[in-house]
Design brief:
alpha/beta, Rossmann fold, eight-stranded mixed beta sheet, seven-stranded mixed beta sheet
Length: 371
């Protein structure tokens, strides 16, 4: 199979779909790999390293979109990239379609076979291709929030760890999954006063056992959220409904009970955000203020630590790419129902139920596509 990866063009996105090491594995299997010149510069991998791994370097993205059977990316294709996709081509990347009707419409129109990293499942409904980026984003959310809390950045002027004689900052983490767990770990490590909210009693029990007295847990309901908002200096939104838009758990009215200069970090912004007042921002301009509350809503947080993120991502995405290249995507999905969960759009049809319901498309089950 001819496989290509392009330079990411989203604002301050430095990750790349394939590392030189991944290219070497694909080439060893007998595939042909094309890499856009400069695609790996953001992770410190120059064209010579890709050539050494067996790749063909091409100028610009056009040859890859025109001639490669599978395009491996990191972020969702931007409008100019979507215009180059074609019927019969495999697009393998993060998509986050539910809050993005324009992207969904373009993918449907293109006829492409679009496989979303974030909906590929694992045992016990885990999300193994999303997990490493959730780990990165969870950990980054605390350092981003700590910076936003500084007075020079519009924040309250609170040091999360405090100092002797001064109380530490209070951190509220909404959601006890991978993002929330990693955020709590970082906040606890800094010495902050941490409370994690979740609706699943088993998750709360697991968090309680892990953190013991270093972090508190509370059941997530409207009353507890509102009470904790009034106390917190930093709030991390870490709620995920796989493939669907994130629920709005903090309304604009609730901001009135928060301390001026408190910070909201919405890690769910890729799925539309879990705060009503959230809208996507960039690394160029990461924060804005609503009703005195600082919002940090960067939609590609892991892109800032591109090398760590790219290698962590390739560890989990490459095995599926190898299988699709060897067997074809249909047979790979027939053999692996977890991979089949990643199919979101195929030949003009929406094949992921949550996306179809959110955006008003007819839903075509993957089983129908695979026959």
């Amino acid at each position: 199979m001819r496989i290509g990866t392009v330079r990411e063009i989203k604002n301050h996105e430095y990750r790349v779909g394939l590392t030189p090491e991944s290219v070497r594995e694909l080439v060893a299997q007998g595939n042909e790999v094309w890499v856009e010149s400069g695609a790996g510069n953001g992770i410190g991998a120059d064209d010579a390293q890709y050539v050494s791994a067996g790749a063909k370097i091409v100028d610009g993205p056009d040859p890859i979109f025109a001639e490669c059977e599978m395009v491996v990316k990191v972020k969702e294709p931007q409008a100019e990239e979507r215009a180059k996709l074609r019927s019969g081509q495999i697009l393998y990347t993060y998509l986050h379609l539910a809050p993005d009707p324009a992207q969904t419409a373009d993918l449907v129109k293109s006829g492409v076979t679009a496989i979303a990293y974030e909906t590929v499942t694992g045992p016990n409904r885990s999300l193994p291709l999303l997990k490493p980026m959730s780990q990165v984003a969870g950990r980054m959310s605390i350092q981003a929030g700590a910076t936003a809390l500084e007075k020079a950045h519009g924040g309250r002027g609170v040091l999360l760890g405090g100092v002797p004689g001064v109380l530490p900052g209070r951190v509220m983490v909404i959601g006890g999954g991978v993002v929330g767990f990693n955020a709590a770990q970082m906040a606890v490590g800094l010495g902050a006063d941490v409370t994690i909210l979740d609706r699943d009693p088993e998750v709360l029990e697991r968090l309680g056992i892990h953190f013991e007295s270093r972090a508190k847990t509370r059941f997530s309901n409207r009353s507890n959220i509102q009470q904790m908002l009034s106390e917190a200096e930093l709030v991390i939104g870490a709620v995920l409904v796989p493939g669907a838009a994130a629920p709005k758990l903090v309304t604009r009215d609730m901001l009135a009970c928060m301390k001026p200069g408190a910070v909201l970090v919405d890690v769910a912004i890729d799925q539309g955000g879990c705060f009503e007042t959230s809208h996507a921002t960039t690394h160029d301009d990461p924060t804005y203020i609503v009703d005195g509350i600082v919002h940090y809503c960067v939609a590609n947080m892991p892109g800032a630590v591109a090398r760590t993120s790219t290698y962590a991502l390739n560890n989990v995405t490459l095995p599926h790419a190898l299988r699709m290249a060897e067997l074809g995507w249909q047979e790979a999905m027939r053999r692996d129902p977890h991979l089949a969960e990643g199919l979101n759009v195929h030949a003009g049809k929406v094949t992921y139920r949550a996306v179809a319901e959110e955006l008003g498309y007819d839903w075509t089950p993957v089983e129908e596509i695979l026959g």
